[in-house]
Amino acid sequence: MKLKKTLSLCLAAVLTAGLVGCGSSAATDSTAPDGDGDPTTLTVAMECAYAPYNWTQSDDSNGAVQIRDSSDYAYGYDVMMAKKIAEALGQEIQIVKLDWDSLIPAVMSGDVDCVIAGQSITSERSQQVDFSNPYYYASIITLVKKDGPYANATSVADLSGATCTSQLGTIWYDSCLPQIPDANILPAQETAPSMLVSLNSGACDVVVTDRPTAQAALVAYPDFVALDFGGGDQDFQVSDEDINIGISMKKGNTALQDAINGVLATMTTDDYNTMMDEAISVQPLSE
User: Fold this and answer.
1) Strand, helix or coil at 125?
2) 8 Å CB contact between 93 and 36
3) Strand 244-250 and strand 129-131: pairing?
Protein backbone atom coordinates (compact mmCIF):
# COMPACT_ATOMS: atom_id res chain seq x y z
CA MET A 1 0.00 0.00 0.00
CA LYS A 2 2.90 2.36 0.59
CA LEU A 3 3.99 2.28 -3.06
CA LYS A 4 0.41 2.73 -4.20
CA LYS A 5 -0.01 5.78 -2.03
CA THR A 6 3.31 7.21 -3.23
CA LEU A 7 2.35 7.00 -6.89
CA SER A 8 -1.08 8.44 -6.21
CA LEU A 9 0.44 11.43 -4.43
CA CYS A 10 2.96 11.91 -7.24
CA LEU A 11 0.27 11.94 -9.90
CA ALA A 12 -1.90 14.16 -7.76
CA ALA A 13 0.92 16.68 -7.70
CA VAL A 14 1.09 16.54 -11.50
CA LEU A 15 -2.63 17.14 -11.76
CA THR A 16 -2.47 20.04 -9.30
CA ALA A 17 0.32 21.61 -11.34
CA GLY A 18 -2.12 21.94 -14.19
CA LEU A 19 -1.05 19.23 -16.61
CA VAL A 20 -4.46 17.65 -16.27
CA GLY A 21 -7.61 19.69 -16.36
CA CYS A 22 -9.79 17.31 -14.39
CA GLY A 23 -10.17 17.08 -10.61
CA SER A 24 -7.63 15.33 -8.42
CA SER A 25 -9.96 13.15 -6.39
CA ALA A 26 -9.07 10.02 -8.40
CA ALA A 27 -5.34 10.73 -8.16
CA THR A 28 -5.46 11.04 -4.38
CA ASP A 29 -7.16 7.67 -3.99
CA SER A 30 -4.52 5.57 -2.20
CA THR A 31 -6.11 2.36 -3.53
CA ALA A 32 -5.39 3.25 -7.18
CA PRO A 33 -3.08 0.65 -8.77
CA ASP A 34 0.35 1.91 -9.71
CA GLY A 35 1.33 -0.43 -12.53
CA ASP A 36 4.87 -1.70 -12.05
CA GLY A 37 5.33 -0.20 -8.57
CA ASP A 38 7.95 2.40 -9.47
CA PRO A 39 6.49 5.93 -9.44
CA THR A 40 9.71 7.41 -10.85
CA THR A 41 9.50 5.44 -14.11
CA LEU A 42 6.84 5.07 -16.79
CA THR A 43 7.20 1.46 -17.90
CA VAL A 44 5.66 0.97 -21.33
CA ALA A 45 5.12 -2.29 -23.21
CA MET A 46 5.02 -2.61 -26.99
CA GLU A 47 5.96 -5.14 -29.67
CA CYS A 48 8.93 -3.20 -31.02
CA ALA A 49 8.06 -4.84 -34.36
CA TYR A 50 5.17 -2.79 -35.73
CA ALA A 51 6.64 0.06 -37.78
CA PRO A 52 5.87 2.90 -37.90
CA TYR A 53 4.20 2.60 -34.47
CA ASN A 54 7.21 0.89 -32.92
CA TRP A 55 10.29 -1.03 -33.98
CA THR A 56 13.66 -2.35 -32.81
CA GLN A 57 17.00 -0.82 -33.81
CA SER A 58 20.61 -1.31 -32.75
CA ASP A 59 21.41 2.21 -31.50
CA ASP A 60 19.84 5.28 -29.93
CA SER A 61 19.61 7.34 -33.12
CA ASN A 62 16.71 9.78 -33.41
CA GLY A 63 16.12 9.49 -29.67
CA ALA A 64 15.44 5.76 -29.43
CA VAL A 65 15.10 4.24 -25.95
CA GLN A 66 16.96 1.13 -24.80
CA ILE A 67 14.73 -1.88 -24.34
CA ARG A 68 14.62 -3.41 -20.87
CA ASP A 69 16.99 -6.39 -20.49
CA SER A 70 18.33 -5.88 -24.02
CA SER A 71 21.18 -4.16 -25.86
CA ASP A 72 18.70 -3.07 -28.54
CA TYR A 73 16.66 0.13 -28.70
CA ALA A 74 13.04 0.92 -29.53
CA TYR A 75 11.69 3.82 -31.53
CA GLY A 76 8.65 4.84 -33.53
CA TYR A 77 5.44 6.78 -32.99
CA ASP A 78 4.63 4.90 -29.79
CA VAL A 79 8.06 5.59 -28.30
CA MET A 80 7.77 9.26 -29.25
CA MET A 81 4.41 9.41 -27.48
CA ALA A 82 5.71 7.51 -24.44
CA LYS A 83 8.63 9.94 -24.09
CA LYS A 84 6.30 12.93 -24.36
CA ILE A 85 4.01 11.56 -21.63
CA ALA A 86 6.89 10.57 -19.33
CA GLU A 87 8.48 14.00 -19.67
CA ALA A 88 5.19 15.73 -18.85
CA LEU A 89 4.78 13.53 -15.77
CA GLY A 90 8.37 14.04 -14.64
CA GLN A 91 9.23 10.35 -15.02
CA GLU A 92 11.97 8.30 -16.64
CA ILE A 93 10.92 6.06 -19.53
CA GLN A 94 11.43 2.30 -19.77
CA ILE A 95 10.41 0.23 -22.81
CA VAL A 96 9.49 -3.44 -22.48
CA LYS A 97 9.42 -5.58 -25.62
CA LEU A 98 6.63 -8.19 -25.65
CA ASP A 99 4.68 -10.27 -28.14
CA TRP A 100 1.29 -8.82 -29.10
CA ASP A 101 -0.68 -11.39 -27.11
CA SER A 102 1.42 -10.68 -24.00
CA LEU A 103 0.73 -6.93 -23.88
CA ILE A 104 -2.59 -6.88 -22.03
CA PRO A 105 -1.56 -9.65 -19.58
CA ALA A 106 1.54 -7.58 -18.70
CA VAL A 107 -0.67 -4.62 -17.78
CA MET A 108 -3.09 -6.79 -15.83
CA SER A 109 -0.27 -8.45 -13.86
CA GLY A 110 1.40 -5.14 -12.99
CA ASP A 111 4.64 -5.87 -14.84
CA VAL A 112 4.22 -2.61 -16.80
CA ASP A 113 2.38 0.66 -16.24
CA CYS A 114 0.76 0.82 -19.66
CA VAL A 115 0.78 -0.39 -23.25
CA ILE A 116 1.39 2.04 -26.11
CA ALA A 117 1.31 -0.22 -29.14
CA GLY A 118 -1.31 0.82 -31.68
CA GLN A 119 -4.14 -0.92 -29.80
CA SER A 120 -7.70 -0.26 -30.93
CA ILE A 121 -10.03 0.70 -28.08
CA THR A 122 -12.42 -2.22 -28.44
CA SER A 123 -15.11 -3.18 -25.94
CA GLU A 124 -13.55 -6.62 -25.60
CA ARG A 125 -10.21 -5.16 -24.53
CA SER A 126 -11.94 -2.60 -22.33
CA GLN A 127 -13.33 -5.45 -20.25
CA GLN A 128 -9.75 -6.33 -19.28
CA VAL A 129 -7.98 -2.96 -19.12
CA ASP A 130 -8.76 0.76 -19.01
CA PHE A 131 -7.89 3.01 -21.94
CA SER A 132 -6.85 6.60 -22.36
CA ASN A 133 -8.53 8.87 -24.84
CA PRO A 134 -7.37 8.14 -28.42
CA TYR A 135 -3.78 9.07 -29.23
CA TYR A 136 -4.25 8.26 -32.93
CA TYR A 137 -7.11 7.60 -35.35
CA ALA A 138 -6.34 4.81 -37.81
CA SER A 139 -8.23 4.40 -41.09
CA ILE A 140 -8.42 1.09 -42.95
CA ILE A 141 -6.19 0.43 -45.95
CA THR A 142 -5.99 -2.64 -48.20
CA LEU A 143 -2.58 -3.64 -49.58
CA VAL A 144 -2.26 -5.59 -52.84
CA LYS A 145 0.46 -6.05 -55.44
CA LYS A 146 0.57 -3.81 -58.51
CA ASP A 147 0.56 -6.78 -60.86
CA GLY A 148 -2.01 -8.74 -58.85
CA PRO A 149 -5.62 -9.50 -59.74
CA TYR A 150 -7.01 -6.96 -57.25
CA ALA A 151 -4.87 -3.93 -58.10
CA ASN A 152 -7.86 -2.06 -59.54
CA ALA A 153 -10.35 -2.89 -56.78
CA THR A 154 -12.50 0.06 -55.72
CA SER A 155 -14.59 -1.64 -53.04
CA VAL A 156 -14.60 -4.55 -50.63
CA ALA A 157 -16.88 -6.38 -53.04
CA ASP A 158 -14.18 -6.18 -55.71
CA LEU A 159 -11.91 -8.28 -53.46
CA SER A 160 -14.26 -11.25 -53.79
CA GLY A 161 -12.49 -14.61 -53.67
CA ALA A 162 -9.18 -13.15 -52.54
CA THR A 163 -6.70 -15.09 -50.46
CA CYS A 164 -5.99 -12.76 -47.54
CA THR A 165 -4.44 -12.36 -44.13
CA SER A 166 -3.58 -9.76 -41.51
CA GLN A 167 -2.03 -9.58 -38.06
CA LEU A 168 -3.14 -11.78 -35.19
CA GLY A 169 -5.48 -10.21 -32.64
CA THR A 170 -6.40 -7.16 -34.69
CA ILE A 171 -9.71 -5.83 -35.99
CA TRP A 172 -8.21 -6.05 -39.47
CA TYR A 173 -8.12 -9.85 -39.17
CA ASP A 174 -11.09 -10.47 -36.90
CA SER A 175 -13.58 -7.96 -38.34
CA CYS A 176 -12.46 -6.86 -41.81
CA LEU A 177 -11.32 -10.00 -43.61
CA PRO A 178 -14.62 -11.86 -43.01
CA GLN A 179 -16.41 -9.05 -44.88
CA ILE A 180 -14.65 -9.98 -48.14
CA PRO A 181 -17.07 -12.15 -50.18
CA ASP A 182 -15.90 -15.76 -50.57
CA ALA A 183 -12.55 -14.90 -49.01
CA ASN A 184 -9.89 -17.53 -48.45
CA ILE A 185 -8.69 -16.34 -45.05
CA LEU A 186 -5.26 -17.66 -44.13
CA PRO A 187 -4.09 -18.04 -40.53
CA ALA A 188 -3.28 -14.73 -38.86
CA GLN A 189 0.32 -13.55 -38.91
CA GLU A 190 2.18 -13.04 -35.63
CA THR A 191 3.63 -9.66 -36.62
CA ALA A 192 3.08 -6.87 -39.12
CA PRO A 193 6.39 -7.62 -40.93
CA SER A 194 5.41 -11.27 -41.43
CA MET A 195 2.04 -10.11 -42.79
CA LEU A 196 3.83 -7.96 -45.39
CA VAL A 197 6.22 -10.79 -46.29
CA SER A 198 3.19 -13.01 -46.92
CA LEU A 199 1.84 -10.54 -49.48
CA ASN A 200 5.23 -9.92 -51.08
CA SER A 201 5.93 -13.63 -51.47
CA GLY A 202 2.61 -14.28 -53.18
CA ALA A 203 1.25 -16.39 -50.34
CA CYS A 204 -1.79 -14.11 -50.30
CA ASP A 205 -3.46 -11.55 -52.58
CA VAL A 206 -4.63 -9.07 -49.97
CA VAL A 207 -3.55 -7.68 -46.61
CA VAL A 208 -5.77 -5.35 -44.59
CA THR A 209 -4.16 -2.96 -42.13
CA ASP A 210 -4.16 0.70 -41.08
CA ARG A 211 -2.86 3.74 -42.96
CA PRO A 212 0.45 4.24 -41.07
CA THR A 213 1.41 0.58 -41.50
CA ALA A 214 0.48 0.75 -45.18
CA GLN A 215 2.47 3.94 -45.72
CA ALA A 216 5.52 2.35 -44.15
CA ALA A 217 5.06 -0.80 -46.24
CA LEU A 218 5.00 1.14 -49.52
CA VAL A 219 8.51 2.41 -48.78
CA ALA A 220 9.91 -1.10 -48.41
CA TYR A 221 7.78 -2.77 -51.05
CA PRO A 222 7.44 -0.59 -54.17
CA ASP A 223 5.41 -3.32 -55.87
CA PHE A 224 2.58 -2.82 -53.36
CA VAL A 225 -0.49 -0.68 -53.96
CA ALA A 226 -2.53 0.86 -51.14
CA LEU A 227 -6.28 0.83 -51.76
CA ASP A 228 -8.48 3.28 -49.85
CA PHE A 229 -12.17 2.55 -50.28
CA GLY A 230 -13.22 5.86 -48.77
CA GLY A 231 -14.94 4.85 -45.56
CA GLY A 232 -18.44 4.66 -47.08
CA ASP A 233 -20.78 1.81 -47.98
CA GLN A 234 -18.16 0.29 -50.32
CA ASP A 235 -15.57 0.08 -47.54
CA PHE A 236 -15.07 -2.27 -44.60
CA GLN A 237 -17.73 -1.57 -41.98
CA VAL A 238 -16.21 -0.91 -38.58
CA SER A 239 -17.15 1.11 -35.52
CA ASP A 240 -15.30 4.13 -34.15
CA GLU A 241 -13.91 1.95 -31.36
CA ASP A 242 -12.16 -0.19 -33.96
CA ILE A 243 -10.15 2.67 -35.43
CA ASN A 244 -9.56 4.76 -32.29
CA ILE A 245 -6.10 3.89 -30.95
CA GLY A 246 -5.56 4.19 -27.20
CA ILE A 247 -3.11 3.61 -24.36
CA SER A 248 -4.11 0.75 -22.05
CA MET A 249 -3.46 0.47 -18.33
CA LYS A 250 -4.59 -1.66 -15.40
CA LYS A 251 -8.27 -1.53 -14.48
CA GLY A 252 -8.91 1.11 -11.84
CA ASN A 253 -5.70 3.07 -12.39
CA THR A 254 -7.59 6.35 -12.73
CA ALA A 255 -4.61 8.36 -11.51
CA LEU A 256 -2.47 7.32 -14.46
CA GLN A 257 -5.42 7.42 -16.85
CA ASP A 258 -6.26 11.02 -15.89
CA ALA A 259 -2.62 12.08 -16.10
CA ILE A 260 -2.16 10.59 -19.58
CA ASN A 261 -5.43 12.09 -20.80
CA GLY A 262 -4.22 15.45 -19.53
CA VAL A 263 -1.12 15.22 -21.71
CA LEU A 264 -3.15 14.11 -24.74
CA ALA A 265 -5.52 17.04 -24.22
CA THR A 266 -2.67 19.41 -25.04
CA MET A 267 -2.27 17.83 -28.50
CA THR A 268 -4.28 18.10 -31.71
CA THR A 269 -4.93 15.71 -34.61
CA ASP A 270 -2.38 17.70 -36.60
CA ASP A 271 0.16 17.05 -33.84
CA TYR A 272 -0.52 13.32 -34.06
CA ASN A 273 -0.18 13.31 -37.85
CA THR A 274 3.07 15.32 -37.72
CA MET A 275 4.56 12.84 -35.24
CA MET A 276 3.43 9.90 -37.37
CA ASP A 277 4.93 11.43 -40.51
CA GLU A 278 8.21 11.85 -38.65
CA ALA A 279 8.12 8.23 -37.49
CA ILE A 280 7.46 7.02 -41.04
CA SER A 281 10.37 9.11 -42.36
CA VAL A 282 12.92 7.46 -40.05
CA GLN A 283 11.52 3.94 -39.73
CA PRO A 284 13.95 1.17 -40.77
CA LEU A 285 12.01 0.30 -43.92
CA SER A 286 12.75 3.77 -45.31
CA GLU A 287 16.51 3.19 -45.31
Assistant:
1) helix
2) no
3) antiparallel
